[in-house]
């Protein structure tokens, strides 16, 4: 069974390069209501087993802003720069 998720981000040139790195204890993701949530709480709420939480990766901007907890959740991110472009993140999952 194939499931795709598509997220979009409005990014400025200064947001690049994007990096994928292991999640750490201080990472937070922006929520649509303007608040923030720790990545660990996102994983708990998504019912990710604790053994897999240590293997989670995040997509971050050049300044370290978390755009996505890969495979779990993404933020609605708009750069504060005057000129931005819309980029899409497509996550493809195959259940085995």
UniProtKB/TrEMBL annotation:
One GO MF term attached to the UniProt entry: ATP binding
EC number annotated for this UniProt entry: 6.3.4.19
SMART domains: TilS_C (SM00977)
Highest taxon of source: Bacteria
Gene Ontology cellular component terms for the protein in this record: cytoplasm
GO biological process: tRNA processing
Entry keywords, A to Z: Ligase
Coiled-coil portions: none
EC primary class: ligase
Domain Lysidine-tRNA(Ile) synthetase C-terminal: residue ranges: 18-90
NCBIfam families, alphabetized: lysidine_TilS_C (TIGR02433)
Protein name in the entry: tRNA lysidine(34) synthetase TilS
Organism of origin: Lentilactobacillus parabuchneri
Source species taxonomy: Bacteria, Bacillati, Bacillota, Bacilli, Lactobacillales
Record gene name: tilS
């Amino acid at each position: 069974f194939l499931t795709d998720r598509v997220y979009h981000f409005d990014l400025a040139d200064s947001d690049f390069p994007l990096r994928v790195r292991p999640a750490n204890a201080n990472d937070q993701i922006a929520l649509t209501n303007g608040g923030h949530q720790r990545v660990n709480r996102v994983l708990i709420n998504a019912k990710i087993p604790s053994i897999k939480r240590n293997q989670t990766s995040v997509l971050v901007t050049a300044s370290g802003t978390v755009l996505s907890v890969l495979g779990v959740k993404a933020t609605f991110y708009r750069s504060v720069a005057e000129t931005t472009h819309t980029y899409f993140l497509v996550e493809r999952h195959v259940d085995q």
